[in-house]
Amino acid sequence: MSTLVECPVCERLVPESTVNIHLDFGCTSSQVPSTSSSSTATFPAPARRPSTEGGGQKGSNTGGKKAPSGKKRKALTEEDPATSSSPAARPPPSPFASTSASTAQASLTKRPRISASTRSFLEAAKLLPELVRPQTLEDFVGQEHLLGQGAMLRGLIEADRIGSCIFWGPPGTGKTTIARVIAKATSSVFKELSATNATTAQLREVFTEAENVLKLTGRKTLLFIDEIQRFNKAQQDAFLPVVEAGTLSLIASTTENPSFRVNTALLSRCRVFVLQKLTQDDIYRILVRALRLLHEQRTGETLPVADVRVKEEDVRGQDEEDETPNDAARAVETDGRKGESDKGRVTGENTMDQRKSVDDESAQATANTTEPPDVDPVFAFTGPVDPPLVRFLAAAADGDARVALSSLELALSATRDTNGKISRDELKRSLRKAHLQYDRTGDAHYDTISALHKAVRGSDANAALYWLARMLEGGDDPLYVARRLIRMASEDVGNANPLALPQAVAAYQATQLIGMPECDCILAQVVVMLAESPKSVRTYKAYNAAKKLVKESENYPVPLHIRNAPTGLMKQLGYGRDYRYEPGYAHPVHQPFLPPELAGTIFLKDDDSVEGKTYDEAALREWEWRNLGGKKWEGREEMEKKFAVEAEKVEQRGDSESGTARGSGD
User: Among 3.40.50.12780, 3.20.20.140, 3.40.50.300, 3.40.1190.20, what is the CATH number of 143-277?
Assistant: First the structure.
């Protein structure tokens, strides 16, 4: 007879005599084998308490509390006569028995936590991205720089030495899937929480359990936190002691830059693995794999594997209706910039003619070949979901596997036209804008506005219009864009075009008045004006120099002659004395306006000054080749003279300083 006790790890009630065996088995089942070969220990489910002695009161949830002993409750024993007398209800033999059959039977008869019917309902409710989620590294598609043969992350997973790490990448690139693969491969205890709904109390509970498991079994715990950027600073700080002590390893995923969204102390204790956007080829392979898995689940038939890469000749063979979102960008003809030479440059019209010629040759070569293209055999069973449609889904997903799989699920399940299947045109219309995914608050937001600003600064109006369209069509706030244009007008154009600033302010006011979509043309007009305006950062750099000096030097007093003197006392103290009112003189006069300690300090440099600037001959030649057709820039000779003069000044200053140093040494 053995009393039930509480497991210190999982808090279940287990027989006292078998608690060590229960821990050795990793607390994976509520049934624990007995040390005796003739009997097997049994105990109730975690949420059920034994009935009272009177039998009139039902048991309640124990919540993990130890069963009381004494007169009020019968002692619970390892054997139950009611169950041992019935062959059908008798528990399986001990896995420590001499026969191997008893071991297999015991492993198959573990009591599940969720009933079979409930589990089947949960499985049926899963969406396609969850149903086909890879379980092993071999099934994973993409991220070859991390999971390819010889890659560091793959080696860490295979060696079960992953440690604490953060997966950072766009949505649908495999962050959660990699964590689930680690869960299958690791010998550590794996826990998973989502930062969208996890509480600090839940974190502490996991930390306590991880510490108990480590003390009693020596097994570490891997805790996966999805969307860790949703945790506040206090919640992130809670990880520091356990991660520092090695009690558990943290695996986190985020779609936002961890440098800004994860505490520095926690970030320094984690490796950061950057996941890249999946290529169209990767998405196509993922979709074909999903079709194969669905076919195998439905029929039990395993199909041979074919090369399922997106072939360029297959894409060319599509008719105009099958044009992917990326094809439209490739078909745009660009005009040459003002001042460009036609020499050494291919026009957009010639490019289109060459592309048409190549396409015709490729189509003729494809028609002449007798070898069929490598199309996966699964397409023989997918009906209207053919390779061209899957290629379209791969292109429209913009590197997001979850979007692609959801679109494939729609294509497989929708029944809208007369044939009982969704038409390709209807599906394409509904997914036409899927490639315009845009994160209005994350890294994409700041990366895109940075690209717009740099295109304006570089006087590339075409690129600036593209990035403006990316932001506005992606749903970004037009007033935010207008505010940034005001900054560009002052910082990059400056006094080279004094009208730029009032025009940018007017564009902001117009955006406030009419909003989107009508304000897009107004913002585009200002973007082009700023990009094509002459640039001057003279004021911007001068103010930065003044700001730096103020921060690094002491606050020198204002000279007396330029102080305000509204009272007689101030005049007696010398305020405003010897000040010269320039408009009252018929000729220029000199008077200092800086503190005596800063006399001679110059912040504003001449626009044509080359001081502090870089001369890169290779970069200049590249610009001349791309923009002037190989001709020399007209300002090259003048620039070379200025750099020669500046070099002489630097040399003279160096000689002067070295002479001063020798004199002081003597």
Answer: 3.40.50.300
